[in-house]
Structures are given as structure tokens and as C-alpha cells.
Amino acid sequence: MSKKRVLLIYPRGGANKTADAIFPFPLQGLTQLAASMPERFETVVHDENLRPLNGSAQADLVMLTAMTTLVSRAYEIADDFRSRGVPVIMGGAHATACPDEVAHHADSVVIGEAENLLPQILADFEAGQLAPRYTSDSPADLNAIPFPAMEALSWRHRFFMASIQTSRGCPLACDFCSVPATFGRKLRVKSIETLDEELKGIRAKGMKRVFVVDDNFTADRARAIEIFGLLKKYGMTWMGFSNLAIADEPEFLEALRKSGCTSLFIGFESLNDQALYHKNRRYPSRAALADAVDRIRSYGIGIQGSFIFGFDEDTPEVFSDVVSFVMETGIEIPNLNILTPLPGTPLYREMKEQGRLLDMPWDDYDMSHVVYRPAGMEPEELQQGFAWALKYLASPSVIFKRLSLRRRQYPFFLMANFALHRAQTRLANTMWNAPVQRSLEARGFCTP
């Protein structure tokens, strides 16, 4: 008998809706699911950001995952396959937060993590008895999940690096973050032995660069140092997520340096009042933040700095403040975002109760578009200020000015910035509002 064909799909975003680079990071969730599929199925992973689906795609079962900003496209795909009699299962962050809505477009909705549910889902599919909902009542054992099926991805996913997940869940309580709703607040970890085998497999495929996708990889210092040893053992250079607290720990920074750490993604979020943000409470001022950046960089570790515009304390002054901070500190890769109340988060519930949500499509819940009424400025000003800051920092002359030739890994950071340059500039241009820009400039805002 021929194998049943299962299509695992990651939907694309709309045109000019993203600031991502041409070489996307490897898909972690779908490749882990693909690796968990029994051999009696033919499994295909399709990332629409690389190649859009066409109407002739064939499958016996479709499984879709989608963040909120991608769910409209996911619905289009699901409706098309269902019209042809192909059953569709949808999971991911949006399905977990809005299962009733998703149920209008899918035969089954998966709420929470899918790995523990997969055997029952497949058995029900083969019996022709898919349930309307599958809810994960217990977290997945990360040591029992097969290593991601990297071979299922296009070479473009693997051009820069492989990805690895050492833990799930986040104990922090940022009200704008959807991670706790999807993976829980309890930190779950893979064993060192499991990670050793996974890194050995990545290295055997000839890959030397790794992105650690954990939401806060360095939270457990002792465990992180153990993993550093594995990364060093296999000669990896790597990037991951952290917070500024490591700046006060010279021994840990030295361990990071020796492990091959190229850069860390750090959430600065706001320069206004660090006391509001649990991650950076020990840095109460802009000067203290800058000093922390300098200490981390003194160990040869670059910073991908994330900033969010639109907190209630923000006025139009915030855009120039963040741009000048990025330039003064020389942050290697700035990551700019608009505060976005994602479904399932405390922020979404709060703004909905306050009547501040604008009537915007899910497509715009992408951290680049304003979907609520801010407190300290008009929505149009927040949108334009974001576009101005994004375009300014993506300018080639500004990139060269910000990056020093003496900086460790200078060629990598230069390439990374220019890989993002085109998409970021295009995105800024699509939302550019000349009258609002002139108004901001006349009041002394959004000027170089």
C-alpha cells in the first residue's frame, strides 16, 4: 500500500509585512514534528516564505501551524484543502489562544504542545475519526522528542545555521509575551546527554553555527555552562537569548566567550523605566544599560538588541532616544518592534477590557503595525516613528558608522545587517506617512 502523504505547512506573511532576512532561521517546531512522524507516512515540510503553495499541492492530511499574524493565510490554505476533501489540523500559538475561531477553518484544533498528542491524532486520522479538539494536558518530555528533521528543509534554512532547543517555558511574567500561554512558565530542560547527541548529529552534517532557540538560554547559569562545554567540544559558534544580568558576572562572560558565543539576543524593551521590566530591574537608567552593553562586548560578544515602541510611558521622543542609544552603544543588530497585544496574553485581555484595540486584521499583529490606541501619542505617530527608526538604522551609511572594523566577528555582523537592510527598508517605505513625518519633525521628533 502507498504511504499516506502528510503536508506540514508554515504559512507565509503578506507582501512587505515582514523585516526578515532572505535566509530564514530553521523551523524548529515543524521539523521536530516531522521527525516524530512514523515511517508509514510520507512527510513533507513546506515553508511558504520560500515557496508559496499552489492549488495543485497534494496531501492526504494537512497540518498547519501559525502565529497570529500568519493565521489569515493559514485559513486560506486550510479552506482550500478542505474544499478538496483533505482533512486539516491546525495548531500553534494562535490555535492555542483562539481555538473557537480556528475551529471554523480546521477539522481538528491542537491546543498546546503537539508532540504528546501526535500518536492519538494519527490513529484517529487513520480510523477516519479525527476529534474536533486535542488538548495537551501534560507538557512534552523534551528528551523523548526526536531530533529535528533538518533534511526536510530547504538549503536556504540551513545556509547560516542549525537550530537547537535545550529548554521550553519561561518563568518571567512579561505581559506582552505569549510564550507562557503556549509552553508554560515552568522551565523544562533536555538532558546534557540528549544535547550531546543532537550536537554530534548537527556537526556530522557539516554545520558549525547554531542558534539556541530557548527563550532565555542563560537563565540557569550552571546548566548553561555545561552546555557551553558541549558547544566548545564540537567547535560550534552560536547565538542565543539572554538578558543583561550576565553583564555583572565576569566568570560567566568568560565562559560565554570561550564557548564560541558570537552574539546574544537581549530584550532591552524600553529605555524609559527599567523598573517596569522584570528582566532588567538592576539597570535603572540609560547610562547603566550602556555600561552593561560595554561590559558584555568587552568579552567579544555582540548584541542583538530588541526594543519595543508603544508602552504607555512612551511619547514621540522615544524613537530618537532608541536610535541614539543604539548608535552610542554600537549595538550590532538592532531589532525594533511595536508593542503588540497578542491573543492569549495579559496585555491583550487588558487592552480589550479598556476598549483600546483597533479594528485591525490579524495580519497586522506582526509587531510592525499599530493595532491598539497608545497612551502617549496618536496611532499614526507610533506607526511613522517606528518606520523612521527602522529605515534610519537600516541605512548603509548608518550601518558602517555603527559597526567598528576592530569588532570581533565584524564580517558576520556586516553581512547580517545588509541581509536585513533591503527587507527593513522596503517595510518602512510601505508604511511611510509623509505628513505625519513632517509633523513629528516640526515638533523636534524623528530627526537624525
TrEMBL record:
The keyword Lipid biosynthesis does not apply. PANTHER family: ANAEROBIC MAGNESIUM-PROTOPORPHYRIN IX MONOMETHYL ESTER CYCLASE-RELATED (PTHR43409), BLL1977 PROTEIN (PTHR43409:SF7). PROSITE patterns: B12_BINDING, RADICAL_SAM. It comes from the Bacteria. Residues 3-132 form the B12-binding domain. Signal peptide: none annotated. Keywords: Iron, Iron-sulfur, Metal-binding, Methyltransferase, S-adenosyl-L-methionine, Transferase. This is Radical SAM protein. It comes from Oceanidesulfovibrio indonesiensis. Its cofactor is [4Fe-4S] cluster. Residues 156-378 form the Radical SAM core domain. GO terms for cellular component: cytosol. The lineage of its organism: Bacteria, Pseudomonadati, Thermodesulfobacteriota, Desulfovibrionia, Desulfovibrionales. One of its GO terms (molecular function) is catalytic activity.
